[in-house]
Design a protein that fits this description.
There is one protein chain. The longest helix is centred in the last third of the chain and has 20 residues, at 70-89. The chain has helices at 54-59, 70-89, and strands at residues 6-9, 15-17, 35-39. The protein is flat and about 70 Å long. It has a three-stranded antiparallel β-sheet with strand order 2-1-3, with no helix packed on it. By secondary structure, the chain is of the alpha+beta class. It contains two helices and three strands; from the N terminus they run βββαα. The chain is 25% helix and 12% strand. Among the domains are: 6-39, no CATH class; 54-88, no CATH class.
């Protein structure tokens, strides 16, 4: 796990960096009037997928959908319909394992 440093800047132009807090804390220690102005580490760009595999299309970011072709949209919709049909037909299965001690 990498720790990403976020830079905050208040209205007067003073910059603040986030400070690691104890593990039981869930927020960054910053002034209430600060706002995020940038991130130190750039986000990893996902290359645009050109194929028509439905499972791969589901994993693509939502921003890529505006550039999909008709064939990709068709594969995406077919994959959703197929997965919905399979999940509807799945019957819950109960499993029990009994472990007995060996007799010496």
């Amino acid at each position: 796990m990498t720790l990403m440093t976020i830079v905050y800047r208040d209205k007067q132009g003073v910059e603040y960096e986030s400070v690691p807090l104890p593990t039981h804390e869930v927020t960054d220690a910053v002034p209430l009037n600060a706002r995020i102005v940038g991130r130190r580490s750039p986000r990893k760009m996902v290359p645009l997928y050109e194929g028509t595999d439905g499972a791969e299309l589901v994993r693509q970011p939502r921003g890529h959908r505006c550039q999909w072709t008709d064939a990709q949209w068709l594969a995406f919709e077919e994959y959703h319909q197929l997965s919905a049909e399979i999940s509807r037909d799945d019957v819950p299965i109960a499993v029990a394992i009994v472990v007995k001690p060996t007799q010496a």
